[in-house]
Design brief:
The protein is α+β, with helices and mostly antiparallel strands. The strands form 3 sheets. It has a 6-stranded mixed sheet with strand order 1-5-6-4-2-3, with helices on one face. Strands 7-8 form a two-stranded antiparallel sheet. The longest helix is centred in the first third of the chain and has 23 residues. The termini are close together.
Length: about 375
């Protein structure tokens, strides 16, 4: 584990898209312009938004360790959601079309985004007593119908943004609730661990979002760890794609194998770790390793994954022990310490955590 030191005051702005750049790059090279044109446009938009994120001062201060919620009656801790419509233009936030407490509208994308923000808020509040993603009631804002054939969704540090997809490979990005949960969890990480978005710390940043995205989906469906499919972005691909989802936590590397998209490159263990300078050091690829560790832990412990397994991951993320450049071994050790602190040294939970990391080739100190 990295040597203990004070948390850096430097913020690490993250612009995260649910579809990794390596996948869009693959599509952009296709000879069929119907497929490649939207992918190229999406990559261009992502590059613009990424630059904007890097040069914009983070408006909300980052918190070291677990944030302190305001002294509000628990019954009054309700979400404050706002959904806007970009009308297929590349503008943010767009026109507000639904606010907190208002009735559903005719636009299904608006209603799905509203419900997904609510499902994310509900998991963090009811299970982990976290009042919104910053722990202090931050309003949850989202924009739908962003851009023309925009094939992605992202968190820009302030809001969720959804494209409609290209209709050829990707459907509407408001469809999978775990996509919404994934992106908003980048906000939770932003306000707690502040993990650098590069290399192993970046892969952990991505993995944490996949973990809680999966838990939000399972919580909303009342699924146990054994019942869940452990897929991220299931239902996002059109029928022409040979694939089930963007990623599989149960079996990394098997989510898709398609003539246009190529084969899912995620490794499940350190034996197949991918060393690359692309995608910020492979943050969307090597996240398969900690993803698989969590899957193994959740199934080993049984029951609802958001309870013991999720609690250990949440304690680790918000407990203040992580450094911005924490690597896999450091995170694994922190999860073992979190399990020991909550459930006892040598407890079933503690031993299960050590075992799950060992099974993916990561050693806890």
């Amino acid at each position: 584990m990295n040597a203990p030191r004070a948390h850096s005051s430097q913020t690490h702005p993250v612009f995260c898209t649910i579809v990794p750049p390596h996948l869009l790059d693959q599509v952009s090279r296709n000879s069929d312009d119907l497929l490649s044109r939207p992918a190229r446009r999406t990559l261009e938009q992502d590059a613009t938004q990424r630059t904007r994120r890097q040069i914009t001062t983070v408006r909300h201060g980052l918190l070291a360790g677990a944030p302190v919620a305001p002294d509000i009656d628990p019954a009054e801790r309700t979400p404050q959601r706002t959904i806007s419509d970009a009308d297929n233009k590349e503008r943010l936030p767009g026109e507000e079309v639904r606010a907190e407490g208002s009735e559903p509208v005719q636009d299904a994308s608006v209603n799905r985004a509203y419900a997904g923000l609510g499902a994310t808020f509900e998991l963090y509040l009811s299970v982990y007593d976290r009042y919104s993603i910053d722990g202090a009631g931050l309003p949850l804002d989202a924009t739908v119908h962003y851009g023309e054939e925009y094939a992605n969704a992202f968190w820009d540090g302030e809001r969720m943004v959804f494209g409609d997809g290209d209709g050829e490979i990707f459907r509407d990005f408001t469809l999978p609730v775990d996509v919404i949960g994934h992106e908003l969890t980048h906000g939770v990480t932003q306000y707690s661990a502040n993990l650098e978005y590069y290399g192993q710390s970046g892969a952990l940043n991505e993995s944490v979002s996949d973990v809680f995205g999966a838990l939000i989906k399972q919580h909303s469906l009342a699924q146990s760890a054994q019942e869940a499919d452990w897929l991220i972005g299931s239902g996002l691909f059109t029928d022409r794609v040979e694939g089930a989802a963007l990623r599989s936590m149960k079996a990394p590397g098997t989510a898709y194998d398609d003539d246009v998209l190529g084969k899912d490159p995620q490794p499940a263990t350190m034996e197949d770790y991918v060393s690359t300078g692309a995608d910020n050091g492979g943050v969307h690829i090597n996240s398969g390793i900690p993803n698989h560790a969590f899957y193994r832990l959740a199934v080993d412990l049984g029951g609802n994954a958001w309870e013991r397994a999720g609690q250990i991951w949440y304690d680790t993320l918000t407990g203040g022990s992580l450094q911005p450049d924490t690597d896999f071994a450091g995170f694994a050790t922190a999860t073992a310490e979190a399990a020991s602190a909550r459930y006892g040294d040598g407890s079933d939970e503690h031993e299960a955590v050590r075992k799950c990391w060992s099974e993916v080739g990561v050693t806890t100190e």
